[in-house]
Amino acid sequence: MHKLRQANPVESVLGLPSPVSFSIWWNGGSILGVLLGLQILTGLFLSMHYTADMTTTFDSVVHIMRDVPGGWLFRNLHANGASLFFVFLYLHIGRGLYYQSYISQPHTWMVGVTIFLVSMGTAFLGYVLPWGQMSFWGATVITNLVSAVPYVGSAIVEWVWGGFSVGQSTLNRFFSLHFILPFLIGALSALHILFLHEKGSTNPLGDLNHVSKIPFHPYYTWKDIVGFVVLLGMLVALGFFFPSILGDPENFNQASPMVTPVHIQPEWYFLFAYAILRSIPSKLGGVLALVAAVVILYFLPLSVSYGKIIPASFTPPYQFVYWNLVTFFVLLTWLGACPIEEPYATLAVPISILYFLSFVVLVSLPSIWKKVLY
């Protein structure tokens, strides 16, 4: 008997049987992988000139932009790459929501949500490092939220700060964590792909048992390359022509604990959760709602207990609720950037409630719609 030749990992991936009906929305994962690699590479070069010293940090960033050859490009690519990472991350999550990937591949979905959470933490830590006004006060406000934890909240905040306020110890540990966490994201991404290939990718009908399949290469590798070219165009446009369009003007000023910005807000990709936080008068309630706005994604696989998938294409109520959820997300992002005054403060309350209700309806719809059809 002769031994069968085992295919190497590269051949296994390139020859992976894939559904013939993949659309452009299945390009998100590969684009996110490229962006993660770009963030790690540019971050590595930036760390060679960055100084995690409270008195010289801001000047070191200016030095990178003005004096280091190509430093301006690396920093522009790193800062705007983070924004693009979240753009494609939200599109990737939105595709999974619409095509109900959380039902057909619950383990892949759970790991993906974990990647989302770790990415949010990594981005927050990175936003603090330039030590501009909004970086400093954003760190002060966000870390202060932990003080809402009963009994031990204040002690935890001081432990996170490494003192009684955001200072040198805070900057040191934020820099260390920001450098390490992307490698954790890379490991989680590998696990994400492992779970994905265990069952295979779904098609737009949410079905795993495909009859018509084609090899991943060359059909989808070429489609991914087209996605990479589009991504490169977006990076070039932002890095060369609009490098500061997604940033906050306050961050061009050095951090000062004596001057508070008129309107403190996080980066745009956190604004939806920030709007939910501000909509609740209670500090503890606001923090719980902020956490729930993201953690609620973990509970979507509960829909699997309701039976088989009914594709969104054949479920008009599901499409209606889904697009309403997208609308609420966009509105909350806008409200998070608005000042805390009327009518924005009042408007955020009902939209926050509708945001959470949309998830409840999405989980229960498969059961309801199944009874209607069967």
UniProtKB/TrEMBL annotation:
One of its GO terms (cellular component) is mitochondrial inner membrane. InterPro entries: Cyt_b/b6_C, Cyt_b/b6_C_sf, Cyt_b/b6_N, Cytb/b6-like_sf, Cytochrome_b, Cytochrome_b_C_euk/bac, Cytochrome_b_N_euk/bac, Di-haem_cyt_TM. This is Cytochrome b. The chain crosses the membrane at residues 24-46, 73-93, 108-129, 141-162, 174-196, 225-246, 284-300, 320-340, 347-369. Pfam families: Cytochrom_B_C, Cytochrome_B. PANTHER family: CYTOCHROME B. GO terms for molecular function: metal ion binding; oxidoreductase activity; quinol-cytochrome-c reductase activity. Belongs to the cytochrome b family. It is a multi-pass membrane protein. Residues 206-374 form the Cytochrome b/b6 C-terminal region profile domain. Heme b b562 binds at H78, H178. A ubiquinone binds at H197. Heme b b566 binds at H92, H192. The keyword Heme applies. CDD domains: cytochrome_b_C, Cytochrome_b_N. Component of the ubiquinol-cytochrome c reductase complex (complex III or cytochrome b-c1 complex) that is part of the mitochondrial respiratory chain. The b-c1 complex mediates electron transfer from ubiquinol to cytochrome c. Contributes to the generation of a proton gradient across the mitochondrial membrane that is then used for ATP synthesis. Binds 2 heme groups non-covalently. Coiled coil: none annotated. The lineage of its organism: Eukaryota, Metazoa, Spiralia, Lophotrochozoa, Mollusca. One of its GO terms (biological process) is mitochondrial electron transport, ubiquinol to cytochrome c. Its cofactor is heme b; heme. It is found in: Mitochondrion inner membrane.
